[in-house]
Amino acid sequence: MLDYIQKPHQKQTVEAIWRLEKLILDTLDFNDVVQSIVDGILHELGFLKLGYRIVVLALVNDEKKVLERIAISQTKEAVKAVEASPMPFQSIDIPLRANKNLCIKVLKDHKFSYTEFWPDILCPPFTPEKAKAIQEKVGIKTSFVCPVRTKQKTIGVMIFSLVKEFSEISEDEKELILNFTDIVGLAVQNAKLYSTVEEASHRLKKANHRLKELDVLKDEFVSIASHELRTPMTAIKSYLWMAINKSPQKLSPQLKKYLDISYQSTERLIHLVNDMLTVSRIERNKIEIKKEQFDISETLQLVYEELKISAQEKNIEFTLLKDKDKKYMVLGDKEKLREVFQNLVGNALKFTPNKGKITIAFKKDKDGVQIAVSDTGSGIRKEDQSKLFKKFSKIDYSYTKHSSQPGTGLGLYISKQIISLHHGSITVQSEVEKGSTFTVNLPQK
Ligand SMILES: Nc1ncnc2c1ncn2[C@@H]1O[C@H](COP(=O)(O)OP(=O)(O)OP(=O)(O)O)[C@@H](O)[C@H]1O
Ligand SMILES: [Mg+2]
């Protein structure tokens, strides 16, 4: 290795630099990179044998406005110098305004320089006497200071301290050092970027972890709050029902109107609390599906009977189309699926104007049953259809003649989750002002 430096050859120089560059660029951790920079030139390029003893990398800290010592080579002279220093190596900061310091000069002039007098590179923060004493103790004759550049600016310096005179440094050594310090700039920048990304990703991981914890807390809060709300609200609803239907005195029309509104509002609140509770269970994976084989058309018959009166009030032609002799067997949770269809038919009733039509139809195939709930209501724009199954997905109907309807926009989200837990599917087909069809496929087994 020494050979090609004593008898320099362009190709070998380039190869040596390339080896060192690869070593440095392959290292990602910032501390490892700067250490291989200061050690590499002595050991990889054999400069130790050429009288180079201490290599130091110092970088600008823009915030503190100082040139900070970052890394020092691991040689016995370096150990001696550090031991003799009145302050730890990493604290030897030079203020950027210390214009007499040679390192700062090199930094500002962007040109290399040298000195045979250590106070030039160590004052401040050292006193000239202390700097000189350390130099003598270590036995350094010359220090060669080179700028470390990136494409945009000079970011620091490298100090090479030798046990020989400046005049003994060959042109090839100089050239190699200058080529090397050019790579250093790039390597330092890469390592800094990598460390920043690492740090950011570490912070993101922590933040994400915290968010997950908060999410669990939120779900627990929603779950407890909903439970606590449900009991008193059910009591209110029962007493309101008694007041409306079982009052010993005849209610004045005005009072009856107030009580009716209170009753409906309480019903809506209970519905909302139940939905919130279901969403919270879904999100905590706490929802339980009790699977049994049953005829889904019977469930829809119950939903039909329950909502028939609302359809009549709106003069809606409401039909349940099923083959009486057929059974439409599915494997699933009767109660949860009933909630799904209560919502689908409930939606159809809300968004279909008076004198419209709502139809529930069944189809059987080898895998299971298909249930379609169709209406002749407002319809849903193509661009809104993808939002439907998300949480709080109320659609703006200002583009239609239909007015907005009560609801929280949780029903379809819950429906989709329940159907997915059954390994089924739910899809929508819709045309504005013509109507919508929600189709559910449920497996038989
Ligand atoms: N048959 C339909 N026709 C037109 N729009 C519909 C129909 N079904 C659902 N939508 C639209 O999708 C939105 C979401 O429906 P979803 O059932 O999730 O919520 P909601 O009925 O508003 O409230 P919730 O069901 O929670 O009480 C509705 O607000 C409505 O804008
Ligand atoms: Mg709904």
From TrEMBL:
Keyword hit for Disulfide bond: no
Q: Which GO terms describe its cellular component?
A: membrane raft; plasma membrane
Q: Which Pfam families match?
A: HATPase_c, HisKA
Q: What's a single GO MF annotation on this record?
A: phosphorelay sensor kinase activity
EC number(s) per entry: 2.7.13.3
Q: Which enzyme class?
A: transferase
**Keyword terms of this UniProt record:** ATP-binding, Cell membrane, Kinase, Membrane, Nucleotide-binding, Phosphoprotein, Transferase, Two-component regulatory system
* The organism's place on the tree of life at top rank: Bacteria
Record-linked Gene3D superfamilies: 1.10.287.130, 3.30.450.40, Histidine kinase-like ATPase, C-terminal domain (3.30.565.10)
Residue ranges of every copy of the Histidine kinase domain listed in the record:
224-445
Q: Which reaction does it catalyse?
A: ATP + protein L-histidine = ADP + protein N-phospho-L-histidine
SMART domains linked:
HATPase_c (SM00387), HisKA (SM00388)
Q: Report the main location listed first in the record.
A: membrane
**Mode of membrane association:** Multi-pass membrane protein
Which cellular compartments is it found in? Cell membrane; Membrane raft
The answer to whether keyword DNA-binding applies is no
Q: Cross-referenced InterPro entries, in alphabetical order?
A: GAF-like_dom_sf, HATPase_C_sf, HATPase_dom, His_kinase_dom, HisK_dim/P_dom, HisK_dim/P_sf, Sensor_HK_Regulatory, Sig_transdc_His_kin-like_C
Q: Which PANTHER family match?
A: HISTIDINE KINASE, TWO-COMPONENT HISTIDINE KINASE
Q: What is the protein name stated in its UniProt record?
A: histidine kinase
The organism of origin for this protein: Candidatus Falkowbacteria bacterium CG11_big_fil_rev_8_21_14_0_20_39_10
